[in-house]
Design goal:
The complex is a heterodimer of chains A (about 450) and B (about 375). Chain A is an alpha/beta fold. Chain A folds into three domains: about 190 residues, FAD/NAD(P)-binding domain, CATH 3.50.50.60; about 140 residues, FAD/NAD(P)-binding domain; about 70 residues, BFD-like [2Fe-2S]-binding domain (Arc Repressor Mutant, subunit A), CATH 1.10.10.1100. Chain A is about 35% helix and about 20% strand. Chain A contains 19 helices and 22 strands. In chain A, strands 1, 2, 3, 4, 5, 6 and 19 form a seven-stranded mixed β-sheet that branches. In chain A, helix 11 runs antiparallel to helix 12 and helix 15 packs across helix 17. Chain B is of the alpha/beta class and about 375 residues long. Chain B contains ten helices and 23 strands. In chain B, helix 1 packs parallel to helix 7. Chain B is globular, with a radius of gyration of 21 Å. The chains are: A alpha/beta (about 450), B alpha/beta (about 375).
Chain lengths: ~450, ~375
Amino acid sequence: MQSCDIAVIGAGPAGLAAATTAAKLGFSTVLLDEQPAPGGQIYRGVETAGADRARILGPDYARGRELAKAFRASGATYMDGALVWNISTDLMLDVSRAGASTQIAAGSLIVATGAVERPWPLPGWTLPGVTTIGALQILLKSSGVVQEDAVLAGSGPLLWLMAAQMVDADVPPRAVVETTPRANYRAALRHLPGALRGRGYLTKGLAMIRKVRRAGVKVHTGAEDLAVEGKDAAAALRFTVKGRAHRIETGSIGLHQGVVPNQQITRLLRCDHAWDASQMCFRPVLDTDGLSSVAGIYVAGDGAGIGGAKSAVLRGEAAALAIAARSGRGDAARSGAVRAALSRDAAVRPFLEALYAPAPHVTRPADDTIVCRCEEVTAGAIREAVDLGAPGPNQVKSFLRAGMGPCQGRVCGLAVSAIIAERRGESPEQTGYYRIRPPLKPIPLSELASFTPADRAAE
Amino acid sequence: MTGARDHGADLIVIGGGIHGCSAALHSALRGMSVIVLEKDTVGRHASGVNAGGVRRLGRHYAEVPLSQMSMEKWYGIADFLDDDCGFQIAPQISVAETEAELAGQQARVDDLNAMGFSHEVMLSRDELRAHLPAVADHVIGGLASLKDGFAQPYQTTFAFQRKAETLGVRFFEHTAAQDVRQEGGDWVVEAGEARFRAPKLLNAAGAWAGDLAARLGEHAPVEAIAPMMIVTSRLPHFCDAVVGAAGRPLSFKQMPNGTVVLGGGRRGRADKDSNLSEMLFPELRLSAQTAAEVFPIMRGATIVRSWSGVEGRMPDDIPVIGRSARHETLFHAFGFSAHGFQLGPGVGEIMAALITTGGTNAPLAPFSIARFAEA
């Protein structure tokens, strides 16, 4: 059996920083990540990206190289291509790697599994040709591919970042269809003075928007009632602006409504979660250093609440320092400096959260819209189950199979909770969320049949 | 003195699983006013998360009459509950891999025939393949109950609850019975701010029923167990039956949507104090191997989901059903030891008859709680 002091899951900025810090402090550290190389989503492929791709992706992306380099030199054990598909409450990790599953026992766990895109069920979103902007960006980062003639729709910084990167790649999007409600601008203004502490972010954001507009990309703002038309594949995007109907013919549509913490592991481990009304998502309940409600389990990075890459690095370091402090190896001065830097970096967040809060139509899909795409469960069916008396997401899941498919609720979970909460007239916190059961991602039966358990479990 | 948070009825049922809900519904049909107290939500534990087998095959001989009676209820469940419960008639088959296993199955059929039951039949090598074309070559025959089936566990338990509510049964969820006592000929149950009072009490508290029985002075050694189930992604249709094996733990079923549910006796970690159960995948290694050996097509399957739930098991693997040995007005139906789902519709009716009339024709003697009385 392999065992370690600290297991870190996820090789994005938070995981890299956490593992680097932990290893430097002398802990036996294992970093497990599904991808073949460090970087996570934001710095995907950063070690191998050529000059042209690095130019398109910009200096923020290139910064990931330093992180990856420091991690490689840290002495931490790196397990690439490793899928952690189950974790027991005594911190035994079931790990699939190169077609075989084994177990790793950890003393402490730092979950750095980042964010997922907010679900946005709209008519036709399951048609081929419709994807998320996050998925479009993965294509760009991992293989330099840019979708031609794509329409980007939705709201949030990533929408503009992707559009600007497409412009830089000389494959500009066909159009940008922005759903940010006009009321959000007024709500965000209130937070502008505070956000000026982090004006670097604001300057960058405005520059991206300017770049897209200057390139001649058609931008529609205040879009509502979005729907994808098409029979076997996407053929057009329909929407209204101030009541006026628009229709853009396209076979390629990227959707995005911001990112939310990936809760799969913290839910699996039954950590307490709270509803963040500003970010409109659940996040694990954590202390200032990222310790969850379950002993030994820390969360760093966007999985702790959306804060971006810089904050992710700081939170990763904070978690490792906190574990060190518990065994008398802490560095109080450094911990204090990290907390101060985190507070500075978070200054822009209230502004961004108010500006990019999802429009009401995003969380209230029409009755005939599919919400759980694995099992093809509609919003209307969920509302009917609530009317019958199903008190929460787990009963709806048992009743309708919503969240039971291969994605295990990763895609639809937040949307299902929101629909139930609205129907029952309660807060999402009262409604709660799916209980997440292993495997976190599918594994072959043959692999389970030849599973090599650790001694501890085979007793 | 009664207040706003006092509730009275003819019968209080503790436990909102399929047995509590079924007994409540049948008692209401017999004209009783009924309150069901559930510490979590209805169907939260074993009743909502079992494998859904509606199985007469292979039951303990003492359970066979109850199982037969319950089966009749299953055949009419859609009309009875106004919900089809996902119930489908299907063969339940136990495959034999050795001559010794086959001989054991034949002896069982002879015993059942002598008792007057003919629902379990032997399948020859060819008959077995007519039902299970995908079965492995080494399998030589089997034992079957051809008109058993399967259903959706949560949908079924939820349907019992809803039907019971239409008959006036009051359900109190998130209501844990904290203090249970007799007072002036009534049972009084305190749960938080609320107080419930009724002349009769049914303990249908599953894995937690032993604790309740102990508080009322009766010994019932209920062990909390966590049966584990795994589910594969969709496979081409290859199996219409629910399949077990004579010689090793296996419970195998392909659902109408193509997914395969695998269970079979392996247990995870159960903690009834925290309400939680946890999967232990190394324990499932043998289940995966068995499935792939009995059905070679399973070698290419992918596991997408798993679940477990907290269930109550008795040391002799048969439930406690019947009147308390200490209190005339206390009744028990618990400890179904991971095979109570099929019995729910029938045992609920038996309990309602026993509670309302004081008697039943059902052969309940083997299930008496008195068998655990400490000398």
